[in-house]
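User: Predict the structure for this protein chain, please.
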Amino acid sequence: MIDTSKVYVISTDTIKNAHNGYFFSPNNMRFFRSRVSQIGYISNDRKIATFVTSECDNDKSPRYYSVRIYNFLDDNITNLGKFQEYSSSGAAHKAAKIAIAKYNLNSEVKG
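Assistant: Here is the predicted structure, written as structure tokens:
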């Protein structure tokens, strides 16, 4: 089992302010009916962060959740796993936190 007790929380506002692309633009968010969680998780070396988004097709469809990875070095946002892989916010946040804990472990081993 991966220990996530030492994973640091980051405000997604920090990620939004660092990112120079279109990902968080109001038009993009509205088009995809996207919402961004207020918190994310940052690696110990401050190189990457994970955060959760949710999207739905229309007002009557269910909302599904995706885990995203933001790379502070190259300003890139990618999916961790499949787009809309999670049916609950809690499951997506758990996966985001575990991903950072695994990254931290790998970084310590290489360090």
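Helices lie at 12-18, 26-31, 89-110.
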